[in-house]
Write a structure and sequence with these properties.
heterodimer; A: mainly beta; 7-stranded mixed β-sheet; 4-stranded antiparallel β-sheet; B: mainly beta
Chain lengths: 116, 114
């Protein structure tokens, strides 16, 4: 099992450009999450999904959009990148209550994004 | 809503010394508690978790944590650290009816010196 994978690993954008970050998991998990990590601020939830075709806002959703067209994939989009979106982005997944989940999350390796 | 406070942002310690990383949480309902470790340039991985039952839980790499409901704490301990334990450690709390979402603390950087 590859677990949770993220592409790309690194990206540099100019202000106003757009991009999509891809997250894929092969554990058949229902729940998926996108976080951003900034120094001294822990992880902050951007958006999450409780199943295929569903998405919901997290703590810091502004400037981001997401889609979950397939159960195994969760995409994070930046329509018009801003320097404040310079961060490390992590995707995570977890299983749901019906499968006996205890809500531990499995994380990808991260995407380091710089917006200039 | 839940919240997590990690009381130390940085903890320097010498190799083979004991260490304690402190975590307090706030919640009006029953919680699950977790400690994750993040090595440089990597994602987070689960170190240990408290679900219910015994308040002392053991995890990987010789770490353990004790759940104290009266003090709403979940401190992480290791009796003897190694250089390889140098990493950032995150405490997290989740509740049973919240779509699996976890609230994370700001992290504690553990630096083990030779």
């Amino acid at each position: 099992n590859a677990g949770v994978t993220q592409t790309p690993k690194f990206r540099v954008l100019k202000t106003g450009q757009s991009m999509t970050l891809l997250c894929a998991q092969d554990m058949n998990h229902e729940y998926m999450y996108w976080y951003r990590q900034d120094p001294g601020m822990g992880l902050r939830l951007i958006h999450y999904s409780v199943g295929e075709g569903t998405t919901a806002k997290g703590e810091v959703p502004d400037g981001y959009n997401v889609s979950r067209l397939k159960k195994q994939n969760f995409l994070l989009g930046l329509e018009s990148a801003a320097p404040s979106q310079t961060s490390v982005y992590f995707c995570a997944s977890s299983s749901d209550r019906e499968t006996g989940s205890t809500y531990e999350q499995y994380f990808g390796p991260g995407t380091r994004l710089t917006v200039t | 809503a839940q919240s997590v406070t990690q009381l130390d942002s940085q903890v320097p310690v010498f190799e083979e010394a004991p260490v304690e990383l402190r975590c307090n949480y706030s919640s009006s309902v029953s919680v699950y508690l977790f400690w994750y470790v993040q090595y440089p340039n990597q994602g987070l991985q689960l170190l240990l978790k408290y679900l219910s039952g015994s308040t002392l839980v053991k995890g990987i790499n010789g770490f353990e944590a004790e759940f104290n409901k009266s003090q709403t704490s979940f401190h992480l301990r290791k009796p003897s650290v190694h250089i390889s334990d140098t990493a950032e450690y995150f405490c997290a709390v989740s509740v049973r009816t919240n779509a699996g979402k976890s609230t994370f603390g700001d992290g504690t950087t553990l630096t083990v010196k030779p």
